[in-house]
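Page 37, continued from 36.
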């Protein structure tokens, strides 16, 4: 039998943390003399109460326990469902008066760092709501996982499995204990956020705008304080700063940790990083070429807008500075495929991730060699090390499942009554956790508010599956899992 007490105990700790985090936008609303401070205060009290009582109810008997594989799978999925249920409360009871469906969609989009939104009129929205959206993405990007990995070792509970499930990284032990890894990554995450805040503030934004955008940039989430997204500032400097930090948020944080511990060249020597940056440059060059030749746009302007929006979509951030859907058929097709790329494993980015493309490339290359030399011995490599067959099989299985789930989500949205472009790009942006999709309704200049409630629940499921890399959730529906 699975011991659910340990799962409820950790969930309680996470909910209590989220409840305390709600006090931050409450204080901001008090400072701004906005009545929504009471909504955040009450939501904070309820969330903290549920979390704290869950901890108290399951605390007795806690010893040196380790999470089993079953418990780690259940806890990972449960945390990404339960937290949005409570994180949605401020959206639902604020002056925005969102339905609970819309509120849950917004919370799930924030926590999974997707960036899709149902809120219009962000420029006049209460500051507490804007900050809560940013905090959700900041916590969702890496904070929730860092908290879980840091809390579990303090309770003498091994949590490395959970960290591996979230990031799909090898999670090599660059420090002796999981708690030290979590704390170090948390410090790096905070420092990058602070640097981004200072850079944006220096570039001319207000401190509030700078901090909100810094949190959602490092988290590659894309929630903004304006309906026009980063395009609201209309600044080359701000575009460049956000582009750089979106790229930084998409690189492996464990490599940052190794870099600050005396191995500064590990970041560039990693083949995944080189592949990622090369793919980004090639994609930018393709869009710039189209803009200058087909749309006759000036080179400098083409580079500026193409660089920002291509990086935003590839990293899954979802910011926009222009309506790229109006650039022509070729850029629209490119941006559709860009949605699936993602950043590096071990980053805050989602999507398929670069290392899977590398594995596919190696496997395909070896297969071609074997066709040419049937008796030859060829071994695929990744980062200079041989690739085991089971890793290649896992990647192929994941790609197949990713395409299958994408197709099912698309068909489900079709059955609800959405048009072709909205259904197709909506499914893509949900499972890849990108944010804006394509088309007039949910494109870079639209929102998800006009969609029916059933479509929002389907998309919320897609965000959850994409963020937790499909199998973490789907394994719970197999009879063998519950049989142990």
């Amino acid at each position: 039998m699975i011991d659910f007490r340990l799962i409820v105990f950790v969930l309680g700790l996470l909910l209590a943390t989220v409840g305390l985090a709600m006090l931050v936008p409450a204080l901001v609303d008090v400072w701004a003399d906005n009545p929504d401070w009471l909504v955040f205060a009450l939501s904070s009290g309820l969330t903290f109460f549920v979390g704290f009582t869950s901890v108290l109810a399951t605390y007795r008997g806690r010893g040196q326990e380790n999470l089993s594989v079953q418990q780690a799978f259940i806890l990972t999925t449960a945390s990404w469902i339960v937290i949005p249920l409570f994180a949605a409360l401020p959206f639902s009871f604020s002056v925005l008066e969102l339905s609970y469906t819309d509120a849950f969609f917004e919370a799930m989009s924030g926590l999974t760092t997707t960036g899709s939104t149902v809120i219009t009129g962000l420029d006049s929205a209460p500051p507490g709501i804007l900050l809560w959206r940013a905090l959700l993405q900041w916590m969702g990007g890496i904070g929730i996982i860092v908290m879980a990995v840091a809390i579990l070792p303090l309770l003498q509970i091994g949590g490395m499995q959970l960290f591996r499930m979230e990031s799909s990284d090898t999670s090599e032990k660059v420090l002796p204990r999981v708690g030290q890894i979590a704390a170090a990554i948390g410090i790096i995450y905070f420092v990058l956020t602070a640097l981004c805040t200072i850079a944006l503030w220096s570039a001319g934004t207000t401190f509030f705008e700078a901090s909100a955008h810094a949190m959602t940039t490092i988290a590659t989430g894309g929630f903004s304080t304006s309906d026009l997204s980063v395009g609201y500032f209309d600044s080359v400097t701000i575009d460049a700063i956000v582009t750089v930090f979106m790229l930084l948020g998409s690189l492996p944080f464990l490599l940052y940790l190794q870099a600050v511990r005396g191995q500064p060249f590990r970041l560039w020597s990693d083949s995944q990083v080189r592949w990622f940056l090369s793919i980004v440059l090639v994609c930018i060059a393709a869009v710039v070429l189209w803009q200058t030749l087909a749309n006759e746009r000036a080179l400098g302007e083409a580079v500026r807008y193409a660089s920002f929006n291509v990086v935003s979509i590839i990293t899954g951030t979802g910011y926009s500075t222009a309506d790229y859907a109006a650039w022509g058929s070729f850029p629209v097709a490119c941006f559709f495929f860009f949605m699936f790329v993602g950043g590096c494993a071990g980053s805050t980015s989602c999507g398929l991730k670069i290392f899977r493309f590398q594995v596919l490339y190696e496997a395909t290359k070896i297969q071609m060699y074997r066709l040419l030399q049937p008796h030859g011995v060829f071994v695929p490599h990744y980062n200079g090390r041989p690739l085991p067959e089971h890793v290649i099989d896992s990647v192929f299985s994941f790609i197949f499942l990713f395409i299958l789930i994408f197709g099912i989500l698309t068909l489900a949205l079709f059955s609800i009554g959405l048009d072709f472009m909205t259904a197709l790009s909506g499914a893509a942006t949900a499972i890849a956790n990108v944010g804006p999709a394509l088309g007039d309704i949910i494109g870079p200049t639209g929102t998800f508010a006009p969609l029916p409630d059933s479509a929002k629940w389907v998309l919320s499921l897609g965000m959850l599956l994409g963020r937790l890399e499909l199998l973490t959730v789907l394994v719970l529906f197999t009879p063998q899992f519950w049989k142990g």
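The two ends are 8 Å apart (CA to CA). Flag for discussion at group meeting. Residues 150-175 have pLDDT under 50 and may be disordered.
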